[in-house]
Amino acid sequence: MRAELTKTNQEMKVKLQERLSFSDHTKFRELLTSIDREKPTHCVFDMSELISIDSAGLGMLMIAHQQSEKSGWKLSLQAPKGHVKQLLELSRFDKIIPIT
Amino acid sequence: MMNLANRHLAPHLQGIGDVADPTLAVDFSGSRILVVDDSVTIRKTITTYLRNRGFANVMEAANGRIALEIIEQIEPDLIIADIAMPEMDGLALCRVLKCSDRYAQIPVLIQTGTESADRRAEAFSHGAQDLITKPINLREMLGRVQVHLEQRHLVRRLSDYQQSMAQQLEMAREMQELLLPSGDDIRAFEAVFPVLIASSYKASSGLGGDLWGCQATDDGALRFFMADFTGHGVLAALNTFRFHSFLRNEPLDSLPEADAMACLNSFLKDVLPVGQFATFLSCRINFREGWIEICSASGPPPMLRSGSDGEFEPLASDGLPLGILIESDYCARRYPFPPGSMLILYSDALIETPLPPDAVFTTDSLCRHLNRLAPDASSHSIMRDLLASLMPNLPEDDLTVLVIKHKEQPE
Questions:
Q1: Chain B: residue nearest A93 by CA?
Q2: Which of B184, B205, B229, B257 is the most exposed place for a label (fewest CB within 10 A)?
Q3: Residue B8: phi, psi to the nearest 5?
Q4: How big is the A-B interface in CB pairs under 8 Å?
Q5: Residue of B177, B169, B168, B249 whose CA lies nearest to B210
Q6: Number of folded domains in chain A?
Q7: How far is A8 from chain B (nearest CA, A)?
Q8: Does the global pTM surpass 0.90?
Q9: Residue A52 in contact with partner chain B when CB distance is under 8 A
């Protein structure tokens, strides 16, 4: 996984790239800490360049969701494609995290 | 005199595993040290010095050949050998030891004198661990001896630890395989129901997060389930044990599929930390009435062929995985399953090997592939074909595949 963070006013954008899987667990936790530090009101995960995600990756999105509720920012996922989109649809993640 | 052999390991090097108590200081005074030199004077100087510094097991040999005889009887922890000796010199001794499985790990310190720098350096290519330059500075020699004994001790501990972990994992793997229906269980179902079952389970790293099961229900149906916990390895495997125990103790098969799922969801929501969950799929087959009922929590779409002349189709299987939200609702869907029908259940590694977008199969291409196979292909031949199609790629996740066929009645 690679992640690029940008911040405009109170909104953060995290562009996720490559794959989100089991081995990214520590890195993803660090990413959430970085987001928390910025105290945004809203954070968008740009999924357009993420090429695959596994169940542990979906689990990390759940952790992000929980973290956002705890820290008081809103999380949404943007533009998932291909395999990532299919898996998010299959697992009905739109019921938990808004997907735009 | 201070006992220098009784050195303590540096704190940062301790605690490698549970093989020995890492808080205990390591005492090297019992280490067996073999000093090999044809000069009696040098031999005595070294051995006396080491003994005076607290090493109780110092042995001597006049050349490499005699040294080998001693090594055969009392395996030393460290050898100090002269480079030049009659009969068998220090380098030849090194070579013999390095070729032996048993003795290759014994550190050998070579004493060098007037040899050229190249010749001295050559000792390393013969397998020596270190050099001691003559005239010998005894304190420096003692320092090197201690460093190498410590290193050998750590390597041993690490390798003991690895071996013990590997054994434990292997035992855990065997225990986990016992959670799955055995060949005998499957044959027993095949004897009672008009069904042919082929199954394959392979954990990607010894232990895995996949689990499947099969049971006969009170109303005369056969119920299969397949679960896949987040991730793989030890963590995911622990969840399969937890889940298996729950399934055994809860009388779920009297419940409608959707209610049974809700019950499993509520259990997992209760016990799993955020970020862990399970995809799950259950199917109840009523052979007498020829139907199948599928209930899914995000399991990969099962492939169903109704009747022997039908076509395989992926079934809808969307739904929140188990253990995420307490208010998830699940619904069961019923499909015809007359004799000749086939159902294929699989964990996601079948459509994620290698990782997407390079996977051999997508849901759609898997379906097309199945439809190209001979309509009368057996459960086992379909299984063999699917597993062979993934080769030479090894799944990075646990892979479970079940091929279930409603046996046609003989004419």
A1: B320
A2: B184
A3: -95, 145
A4: 69
A5: B177
A6: 1
A7: 29
A8: no
A9: yes
